[in-house]
From TrEMBL:
This is Diphthamide synthase domain-containing protein. It holds the Pfam family Diphthami_syn_2. Gene3D superfamilies: putative n-type atp pyrophosphatase, domain 2. Residues 3-48 form the Diphthamide synthase domain. InterPro entries: Diphthami_syn_dom.
Amino acid sequence: MTEHLDERYIERNIDDSFMKDLPENVDICGENGEHHTFCHDGPIFSSPVTYTLEEPVKRTYTFKFKDGRIREFSKLFANISGQMPQG
């Protein structure tokens, strides 16, 4: 998650509703790093991946550019722990 998306987007399925709710400046595919995905079920899986999503944590990073500008970027992280299906 980035400054474009907040906690409400964490753990949502990517469906028509998700895409309609995205702000206009966010790439639907997350190509600019707006969001990351985790595939936990589907036809290629013998069974769904059981997982637990940890509490989101906001981290802020400060970057200093060559021209002297300083900019802070905040990102939301939510760790995933789980077990891959066997077989």
